[in-house]
Amino acid sequence: MTETNRRWYLAARPTGEPTREDFEFREDDVPEPGPGEVLVRTLFMSVDPYMRGRMRDAESYAEPWAVGDPMRAGIVGEVIASEYDGLGEGDVVNGELEWADYSVAPGSTLRQVDPELAPVSTALGVLGMPGATAYFGFTDVGEPAPGDTVVVNAAAGAVGSVVGQLARIGGCEVVGIAGSDAKTKWLVDELGFDHAINYDTEDVHARLSELVDGVDVYFDNVGGEITDAVFRHLSVRARVVVCGQIALYNATEIPVGPRKLTTLIQKRAKVEGVLVRDYTNWGEAFERIAGWVARDELRYREDVTEGLENAPEAFFGLFEGENIGKQLVKVRER
Amino acid sequence: MTETNRRWYLAARPTGEPTREDFEFREDDVPEPGPGEVLVRTLFMSVDPYMRGRMRDAESYAEPWAVGDPMRAGIVGEVIASEYDGLGEGDVVNGELEWADYSVAPGSTLRQVDPELAPVSTALGVLGMPGATAYFGFTDVGEPAPGDTVVVNAAAGAVGSVVGQLARIGGCEVVGIAGSDAKTKWLVDELGFDHAINYDTEDVHARLSELVDGVDVYFDNVGGEITDAVFRHLSVRARVVVCGQIALYNATEIPVGPRKLTTLIQKRAKVEGVLVRDYTNWGEAFERIAGWVARDELRYREDVTEGLENAPEAFFGLFEGENIGKQLVKVRER
Questions:
Q1: ipTM, interface predicted TM-score of the complex
Q2: A252 lies within 8 A of chain B by CB
Q3: pLDDT at position B41, please?
Q4: pLDDT for the residue A255
Q5: Is residue A202 classed as helix, strand or coil in its secondary structure?
Q6: Which residues contact residue B297 at a Cβ distance below 8 angstroms, ignoring those fewer than 6 apart?
Q7: Cβ within 8 Å, pair B273-A259
Q8: In this complex, is the C-beta atom of B260 within 8 Å of any C-beta atom belonging to chain A?
Q9: Cβ–Cβ of A272/B264 closer than 8 Å?
Q10: B292 touches B298 (CB < 8 A)
Q11: CB-closest option in A248, A265, A267 to B259
């Protein structure tokens, strides 16, 4: 092949907000698949808040990325060449690959995407990691019951928008918290949330006091002061699903806030972290979500940045709350 | 009756550490039981950290005490007069009564104590609310498994000392955190804890790094900086039982500390509050604990302050960590 392969590398560990200087864009040769491997040409690339953690040199649930290494991402792409029996040229696959035009990976680490089922980009969103995160976090950790009051933040995001709709489908009253009037309008008018709060212009605590009698399930993607406000409304035996803490990921000092464990005694509430990779039965989630999508009971939206060269900006936008729905980078037409 | 009844009243809501000025000691007439009621003469009175919360004018799981009202406590006493069919003169009973020589209460709110089974004072400790708290908090919320590493603080207290021994009996490795060498020595030498840390002279984080590979169950009676240190050692799928936060109860401003929810994602850990009154089957706990006590597999200690007039000082001592084992006030010989 004579084409070159554009790739993003981690140039430096960010301090606070990541900047373009923390990334380096280089052209390399297109890699060749070894035995058992597949060469994938990227169609869509995902940017996700968890990536900020992997840029940090700190112990977490995943190894940090090394400075000087290519950055990794959820990718949907086409198989260009295969040395793996289970996949052939033209197949569409999803896997953790690179911020690049082309990546190679062991075929066994990829899952095949059916282009007839839904647009292939959904394998990075509602029928991908964010959808599974919403499904297992909400149903398994949140333990919702019909009639429960559910609050979710980053509610217009890839995970939050699914959580809120699962809550509605499950017979719960659902309040979404998001950062713009365009988002809150979308949540209520299009996704069927009962209420939405714009945290940028409204006082979350005061609004919750008006809207709900107590919060039975709180699905937290954000942390920080929004979480402080919601904790004041937890019901007895409330469940708090800790899925993300994006408000804190760019902090340069250890974030501090009001201690809240006394609230947990008063309310006998449970706070539990969720990580989607602990669940193996993603197929169950996707089958159900695909059914709701097909019946227009669950809707999704994608926010698409064009061009691999603009991937860092798409990533930065997550921390500014710029995206409505799943933030994607479109790298190439199929 | 010609005897008078000494009673403690809440004179003022404490600001920060409670002082003697917040209490008033008065002599009243001995009350008379109405229909269905019983007159109880106090033998032992319990002082417990939760009482600090009821002196505060804030919403919690229990109504705050009103200024000017008699203070309430767990009492073991003798029935002096009964207008209730199920109890008769001379019976020993336990219930929530008053900081007083005599109290009346509906007979239906009292439980009879068998003086043959164990010293009657244990109905306020190892065979009372603290024992049941330890049993249900540890087994139901902590979900311990043999081989787990368990950390408990206020480990020489009424609840913590039972938790640690239940952990030992359950095949766990147990580390106690307490505030004096006399306490840590008692935990290891007498109660069979594997290790004990004196938080007053040792760095909890550094000592845990030496002693354990990870903490599977953390039973928290204290909160604050000790909890910050233990959170750094949580294992994947750790369970944190939030039973008390005595380090914070006298705070005059909202206590702040490092935000810790990100840790819960990394570790998929669960933090849950426990309140013993949510459990109805205390008899199950007492039967088992009594069996272990009888076989000398579970030991307890009582720290007895003599005289109702000294009850406030016994209460203040809880916040100074003065007691080893269950803090009681002995009001009268049986």
A1: 0.91
A2: no
A3: 98
A4: 95
A5: coil
A6: B165, B169
A7: no
A8: no
A9: yes
A10: yes
A11: A248
pLDDT at position A58, please?
75
Question: Which amino acid would we find at residue A82?
Answer: S
Question: If you write DSSP's letter for every residue of B102-147 in order, what string do you get?
Answer: EEEEEGGG-EE--TTTS-GGGGGTTTSHHHHHHHHIIIIIS---TT
Mean pLDDT, to the nearest integer, of A46-67? 87
B272/A270 Cβ within 8 A: yes
Q: A259 exposed, middle or buried (CB, 10 Å; 0-12, 13-18, 19+)?
A: buried
Rounded to an integer, what distance in angstroms lies between the CA atom of residue A277 and that of residue A165?
22
Q: How far is CA A5 from CA A29, A41, A67, B102, B132, in A?
A: 6, 10, 19, 87, 65
Q: Which pLDDT score, from 0 to 100, does residue A42 have?
A: 98
Q: What mean pLDDT, rounded, does chain A reach?
A: 96
What are the phi and psi torsion angles at A141 (to 5°)? -90, -40
Instruction: Give phi and psi for B193, each to the nearest 5.
Output: -65, 145
| B58 close contact with A: CB closer than 8 A | no
Task: Enter the tokens of residue B197.
Answer: 């840390």
Which residue in chain A has the smallest CA separation from B239?
A272
Q: Residue A255: which residues within 8 A CB-CB, separation 6 or more? A: A223, A224, A248, B258, B259
Cβ B246 vs Cβ B226: under 8 Å: no
- Give the up-direction half-sphere exposure of residue B318: CA atoms within 13 A in the CB hemisphere: 31
Tokens 């603290």 correspond to: B130
> Comparing A42 with B252, which gets the higher pLDDT?
A42
Determine whether the interchain pair B245/A255 forms a contact, defined as Cβ–Cβ distance below 8 Å.
no
Q: Are B5 and B28 in contact (CB under 8 A)?
A: yes
User: How far is the C-alpha of B285 from the C-alpha of A218, rounded, in Å?
Assistant: 33
Smallest CA–CA distance, residue B299 to chain A, in Å, is 27
Q: What does pTM read for this prediction?
A: 0.93
B270: nearest CB among A245, A270, A278: A270
The amino acid occupying position B1 is M
- Tell whether the model's pLDDT for residue A277 goes beyond 90: yes
CB B56 within 8 A of CB B64: yes
Per-residue b/e over B177-201, b at no fewer than 16 CB within 10 Å?
bbbbeebbebbeeebbbbbbbbbee
Note which residues in 8-47 of chain A have CB less than 8 A from chain B. Answer: none
At B3 the pLDDT is 82
**Which residue numbers in chain B have pLDDT < 50?**
1
Per-residue pLDDT band at A334 (split at 50, 70, 90): confident
pLDDT > 80? residue A117: yes
